[in-house]
Amino acid sequence: QLQFVESGGGLVQPGGSLRLSCAASGFTLDYYAIGWFRQAPGKEREGVSCISSSGVGTNYADSVKGRFTISRDNAKNTVYLQMNSLKPEDTAIYYCAAERRTGNNCHRKIYGMDYWGKGTLVTVSS
């Protein structure tokens, strides 16, 4: 059974950090570019970051550049999103998604993703 499961969300104070994980089972992530997306209440889902299958290419939304870092460990079939200096506006449900795409490129667009996780809630509040 193919599964894509996010974890690591929770409540954190402004300025704090969280590390989200996205673990795949039933398929290998080696051939997939991975994206992290988020959806805040009343807003559309947006692409936060992505990483290519090779791990060489990454991309970030302007709103998170310099604060978030995406990485992957293909041996563990897992992708991570390290989130530092969190702000209240980062509050959202965070999703990971996989697109079968090999090479050094990735994108943060919602269309074309093959697998989606169910999301993990991140709340930034004092």
Strand and helix order: EEEEEEEEEEE
Write down the overall mean pLDDT.
95
Shape: globular
Helix content: under 10%
Q: Give the biggest sheet.
A: 7 strands, mixed
For this structure, the quaternary state is single chain
Residues in β-strands, percent: over 45%
Distance between the termini: 40 Å
Structural class: mainly beta
Secondary structure tally: strands: 11
Cα-atom radius of gyration: 13 Å
Pick out the low-confidence regions. none
Number of helices: 0
Describe the model:
The structure is a single chain. With 126 residues, the chain is mostly beta strands. It has no helices and eleven strands. The strands form two sheets. Strands 2, 4, 5, 6, 9, 10 and 11 form a seven-stranded mixed β-sheet that branches. A four-stranded antiparallel β-sheet has the order 1-3-8-7, with no helix packed on it. The mean pLDDT is 95.
Chain-wise SSE layout:
Elements: E1 3-7, E2 10-12, E3 18-25, E4 32-39, E5 46-51, E6 58-60, E7 68-73, E8 78-83, E9 92-100, E10 115-116, E11 120-124
Parallel strand pairs: 2-11
Antiparallel strand pairs: 1-3, 3-8, 4-5, 4-9, 5-6, 7-8, 9-10, 9-11
